[in-house]
Amino acid sequence: MSNPHDFKKLRRIDIEGAARFLTFGCLHREPFFSNSRHCLIAVEELTRNHEHGLLIHAWCLMPDHVHLLVTPIGLSITDFLRDFKARIAERSGLDRPIWEPGGGYDRTIYSCGEFREKRLYIHRNACRAGLVSQPEEWPWHSWPEFCGDQRPDMPPIAGLDADRLMSARIAWEARSNTFR
User: pTM for the full model?
Assistant: First the structure.
């Protein structure tokens, strides 16, 4: 019988300008982000990555997982995720792993409709989970920034760039045609 932690290695393909919808979880669904100190560390790391070429369109810290809608500019999503997770783990001061093995869920977004759908999904996640009744009640996501209320010490939110998504789609289709 195979070990459930023997994940097939999938290579992520970075297409410049493509938005990415990412979800990754805490080990054994531990509620790591029920601790506000851990949330603050993650927000600081998001802000730091924003300063190094990551456009953040939406984010949400749930008690046991993270959702991000981002566009990496000049950095690979694999490198971002590895470093982001490692820095949160290191700064938390815990002497045990905090992340589920594997890369989590990663979907490349090329259309404006899917971009809007994923952004709404992220902002309504705490409501769907029954943690709050309205998005504005959840402190650990980008809903206020999306609504135009930039909170201190929170990463700025980049809007939808339809031209960038279209360029990424064209690049992806050109790349896909070379393999046919």
Answer: 0.86
Contact (CB, 8 A) for 146 and 58: yes
Close Cβ partners of 144 (under 8 Å, ≥ 6 residues apart)? 136, 150, 151, 154
Tokens of 58: 């939406």
Q: What is the pLDDT of residues 138-149, one digit of tens each?
A: 999 999 999 999
The whole-number average pLDDT for the span 49-78 is 91
> Which residues is 165 bridged to in the sheet?
none
Q: Residue 142 gets which letter from DSSP?
A: S
19-177 folds as Alpha-Beta Plaits (3.30.70)
Instruction: Tell me 71's DSSP state.
Output: E
Is residue 135 within 8 Å of residue 143, measured between CB atoms? Answer: yes
Residue type, 165: L
Q: Domain map of the chain by residue range?
A: 19-177
d(CA 72, CA 76): 7
Query: Mean pLDDT across the chain, nearest whole number?
Result: 87
